[in-house]
Amino acid sequence: MPPAHTVAALLATADDLLAERPDCDGPLTPTGRDRGAAYALRIALEMAVDAVLTAQEAGLVAVTTRAKLLCLRHYAGPVRARRVNALWNRLSGACKYHHDELGPTHVQVRTWRAAVETLVTELSEPHTDVGFPQQRGT
To answer: Is the confidence at residue 62, as pLDDT, over 90?
Structure first.
């Protein structure tokens, strides 16, 4: 289970990148800072998902993030899993550079920052397993 301070450090990194500082003359453009914050947020969300799944099933560590998001439904409930999946997909899209698309806006990334923090908190709370449907038949 990853340390909570690592997720907190990633959220703090996103906050630093999102801070509007007119005196900042570093190599990052405002769009680059927003994209970097999106990366930090996606990694924080992935770590929170990993923590939930590792606590339940140690064998889920070696699977892809998309597979983990499918498994999350069983351990965190369908509604929460859908929210995590939708946010992860948006963050993943924001992390990729496409020459014919605009990057994420500052407002979008700030909104995602709040959503990631909420989901990380929800995922760290104890919850009951949803359970798989029982098969009927012969």
So the answer is: no
Q: Domain segments of the chain: what residues? A: 4-19+38-124
| Residue that has been written with the tokens 């499918």 in this structure | 70
Which among 74, 72, 75, 111 has a CA at the least distance from the CA of 91? Answer: 111
Task: Return the DSSP state at 8.
Answer: H
Crossing angle, helix 4-18 and helix 106-124, to 10 degrees? 170
Amino acid type, 46: E
The model's pTM is: 0.83
**8 Å CB contact between 44 and 123:** no
Contact call for residues 108 and 94 (beta carbons, < 8 A): yes
